[in-house]
Amino acid sequence: MNVFVLCTGRSGSVTFHRACQHITNYTSGHELHTREVGRPRFAYPDRHIEVDNRLSWFLGRLDEAFGDRAFYVHLMRDEHATAASFQRRWSGRRSIIRAYGEGILGRKDQTEEICLDYCRTVNSNIALFLRDKTRKMAFRLEEAAERFPIF
Question: Does residue 92 register a pLDDT over 90?
Answer without folding.
Answer: no
